[in-house]
Give the backbone structure.
Amino acid sequence: MVERTTASAGANGRVITAERPEEIRNVVLVGHSGSGKTTLVEALAVAAGAVPRAGRVEDGTSVSDYDDIEQRQHRSVQLSVVPMGWEKVKVNLLDTPGYADFVGELRAGLRAADAALFILSAAAGVEGVSGATLALWEECASVGMPRAIVLTHLDTARADFEDMTETCREILGGGRSESMLPLHLPVYGDKAADGHRPVLGLIDLLSQHVYDYATGERVETPASEEQLQQLEEARNRLIEGTIAESEDESLMDRYIGGEEIDLASLVADLEKAVARGSFHPVLIAAPPPEGARQGLGTVEILDLITRGFPTPAEHPVSAVGSSGESSTLACDPDAPLAAEVIRTASDPYVGRMSLVRLFSGTLHADDTVHVCGHGPGDTGNHDSDERVGGVLAPFGKQQRPLAQAIAGDIVCVTKLTHAETGDTLSAKDCPLIIEPWSMPDPLLPIAIEAHSKADEDKLSQGLSRLIAEDPTVRLEQNPDTHQLVVWCLGEAHRDVALERLRSRFGVQVDVVEHRVALRETFANTAPGKGRHVKQSGGHGQYAICEIEVAPLPGGSGIEFVDKVVGGVVPRQFIPSVEKGVRAQALRGVAAGYPLVDVRVTLFDGKAHSVDSSDAAFQMAGALALREAAASARMSLLEPIAEVRVVVSDDYVGPVLGDLSSRRGRVLGTEPIGPGRTTIRAEVPELELNRYAVDLRSLAHGAASFTRGYARHEAMPSQLAESMRARAKTQT
């Protein structure tokens, strides 16, 4: 049973717990940056008594924006959990970042939740329902996740409730008006000179009551005759929509027959349609006035969460056992343990902390659990037993100890040294693995170097801890450019990653220019003679070799051919010539880039019976290759990436134009669903360093892309000359 109190963990230190999964609701808040997600979490926490007063995102006092980086940047950069109690139900609100760079945290929140609130700013209009929002909406729809829409910022001059509701129906609802309808109409106050219209309350379309929030306390009054006339059409649409989406044929027959349907039946039908994920109500919210307890619409949202959203028992998850057979987990506290690590963080006092969603069983402090699987982006499996430290209830910066956590709940676990994000925790005598969720591929490369020798000593450990915390960061030690590259999702993601390295792990790094792995090759056949003769007293050095270098098709590498006749180069020194040629090819012969796709033929040379040696013929082979390059036309090869861009139809033209400006070759376009198109193209990797940032700006967040290596091909001569001159300057 949930502890019934108007003050919870944040207010008086008491922890809200549940004895049964049916007493838990896990709800993720989704929305674009600035839509008001964190502000709404604060308002709901105040209304439920979880905190005595609402904090502010602007000054870093909100419950969910508790990280130092979040307080400095005044925006959410990580997933946070704020539990609260309402009507004998424990509600876990998962506040997610709205900025696209932190979509990994958003996906973790979607995995931990059983329902979603999409928070949209009415002031943003059509731009507020971006392509990224639509993609997330469709992703939730594909797994049948129940969703509701909450409109914020209705009191601004540009906001229009009716237009925004219609926009949601057209974009998110696919034009199906019966599946997405408001539950309330706003009650406005007098318009001010600046166009500001305060929203004072709500008219409930089903009960036909007015809820006045003007004083910061919800006051219920009957609707006036004028208000009843205003809501009649909207009420009829809502009743018809909920009955249709709940597929309650008997109730539909009664309604069509003109029978007056009682309020209890209408509410029950509404809750059924919402829980099925077929009806998506539109609600209204605003923060409470200064010092007040209830913000506009907070009670209605909490009622919908507790009565309309599904319990964890209604959200089945599959797992694979040691025998390889898949089974559906029972959300039962008495069943074997099955949980998943949703995110990983480091606490300076506690150490590594894992945010865990329990799908089955009960987890106790000091339990020994089996850790299995691999996190998103992690190529190595791990399979071991670990002892849990403490089980904690998260609430902003505060962590309250728990004796146990049951199936359906979300808690923090300490001292899991090997568990990573996406791993499965299960009973050691009944090992399981839950398939991890997909993560976006980071596509913005950042080359870094340690700032000092002291930083260099700590860099490896700091990067490993950073990747354990954030699986959307990928680390690459490029074997061609010898650069250490951190791949991120965008510039904001990069800034946060580097700030965490500095402030949390004590590692200062410098960002350097990211280099692309270029190659050199011969454009025509050319001869080369290597003469290495030195005599300075004592044992000398003598080696002469003559070669011919010819171009080969792309991907052929270095081919060495021995055509020496008559023993002019002794057989034991021919491998030495090849070794010298290959070593020089790796170092480069014209601009310092590796030489590829040539055939080197050794056909003549000279040796000395005393002064010739392995080292001398290696040097002669290298000199011959360099001389051949000096007399040949050299081509600079650049890597070509195969790019697939998924973009809203509204931005296909600008994206195609941008790809052409990047020297890209468009291979084709293909529609992949309502309003979206896939563009296939080949683009030089030199032009893609900032494409992750530029594409988001160009398509207003309504596009994504993937990239993969295709081949190396010749660079345009003018650009090649510029790159050679630049390479000589750097050397």
